[in-house]
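Dear colleague,

Following up on yesterday's call, I've attached the two folding results inline so they're easy to grep. Please treat them as preliminary; we haven't cross-checked anything against experimental data yet. The first protein's sequence and structure tokens come first.
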Amino acid sequence: MRSPIQTRYEDLPEELPIFPLSGALLLPWGRLPLNIFEPRYLNMTLDALGAGRIIGMIQPDYDRDSKAAAPPAEPSVYSIGCAGRIASFEETEDGRLLIMLKGLCRFSIVSELEGRKGYRRVKASYDAFKPDLEVLANFEVNRERLFERLRPYLEAHAMPLSVDVLKGLSDSSLVTSLCMICPFDPREKQALLEAPTLKARYDIVLALLQIAAFEAGGIDTPRQ
């Protein structure tokens, strides 16, 4: 039975405010905490709270800008992002907003619209990603191999993350969480976002951890 607060496909807005943030990855069914303090993004968040609570997370495409003849007025962004619903928010004494964004559905940019109150907006299409709204189907993950590669990665990046806590997650939640919290390169994050299936996403994150573990000396030779 569908929850009364669960977002339906027809609820997704065609005109979507976007938050370009390098290295920040939001995936469908994932949860991303954000600290909002810039005036334009405070405007964006407050507007979203009054109109459906949905914003789009997307990464700047600095590689494209580096090849441009002149710097653009606003950073270029990738063509695919992920819409999220503000699931909770808290005001701080110093005027910030702490929000939790729940990933809903990926989108592709059809065109950029006129900005509003300093923040950017796009015309978005969700047609290619409608299955994102379905509950994640579980699939079998080789956890022994995954954690073997994860441990040296966490150590190399001094990440205070308990593997024991991760072991309590379902396979689908585990893969989604690792994709979002590991500090992969922005281009790698974008590849994870654009992966067509959760299984493909798992294959990518396993390969990224394998390379990092090999470089850190945690695995003697790369293995498939």
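Below is the second protein, in the same order (sequence, then structure):
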Amino acid sequence: MKSAFYSMFALLLFLSASPAWAGPELNRIREELKSSDPELRSDAALALAGEGEVAVDLLAPLLKDPSLLVRHSAAYALARIGGPDVEKIFREGLTAPGDDLRRISVLGLGMLGRADREGILPLLGDRNWEVRWSAAYVLGRSGDRRDLAVLGRLARSDPYRDPAAGSYPVREAAEKSIRRLNSIIGWRTDFTAAREYSLRSGRPLLLYFRGGGSDLCRKFEREVFTEEKIIDAAQRMTPVWLDHNSAAEVFSRYRVTRVPAIVIASPDGSRSDRIEGTLLPATLLDRMLAFLETEKSAVRLRSRLQASPEDLETAWQLAALYLEGGMADGAAQILNRIIERDPDNLSSLLDNALFARGYLAGKRGDYARSAREIDAVLARFPVFGDRAEALYCGGLAHLRAGNPDRGRELLEELGRDYPDGNLALAAGDILDGLAGKEPKPKSSRR
């Protein structure tokens, strides 16, 4: 594995700092491609990255070169050139008889940012473990949460074991991809397909309109779409990334003339909310949750859930009402329903439900169980909406269960990662108390 994959990534790191060769040197490069020296052929392939579409026909045969280095260089050069012809070459390579061509084709599509689900998903069952590894790796960068279930099966049961390292590399790749998919907003770019999915799934559309050259949009995206609670709420919707350069007709359809802009719409279009210009993450979160959680009647939510037992969004809203009302037994029953019916987190509610169940255990005084369950959710979901709350509750549960070192560790992590939050202040007071320090006066707090 190391010789194949590490060389690929080392190559990409090197190239990111190296300018592409360009110029009218095609004749010389053609001769170097015939060299018996693989390093010379590799350099020639890299040089072609700067020649554009005219080089595609020269590079395509190199995907079958005897040298691994040359094959990787050719794939990288083709991905740098891009375009429909290159995409077609990589897509056709997905079904090639040669194992390595299938592997490189998957990685090539990944470098193009084209995770062809229909072509790549079957390769998760490929006979060659390196092909399976590549497919798992690329799907984790697709942002498509529909892949969580098949990646989950791969993470639990892929048979290949690396005898030298004593590890399961394909399982590890699938696990990393799962963590990535659970940690990001899975933006779609095809409005028509996203709207069809919204209608099928019942998830509202979250339409983000941006301008390709807008510094304001880029700043907004960095400051808002990286917030854990925003990610968590967006995962419960159908998020669509709409750049004016490629989706001008959707801008016209929704009469968007100012960016950034956000439109949240029910699948049937009967409800919508419109936000134009920048706003604070907390304000956007309130608007998103208000759109998701319009029903506040437990009676009506129970009726809706009885009619649609698989509607986990309704189940979560009912559990939240039970939690707010102090109905622990009712909440636990609904939380267990979510956990049992969605082991792969397709609903994006599994992390919330697991934490809420751990929280309930602490409320009941079962601190050991609470600590275990919160530790498990923090390990499985490095990013999720209630992570700060989980660190705080987990820290308290460990302290009360007689695990002071782990309790301090979680509370210190809370203070480092969320220094400006109220929970960090409370954690700081607890840590000061454990150290025998006097609590800080409120006037000195931030």
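For the second protein, one point worth flagging: The beta strands are 205-210, 238-243, 261-265, 272-276.

Best wishes,
A.L.
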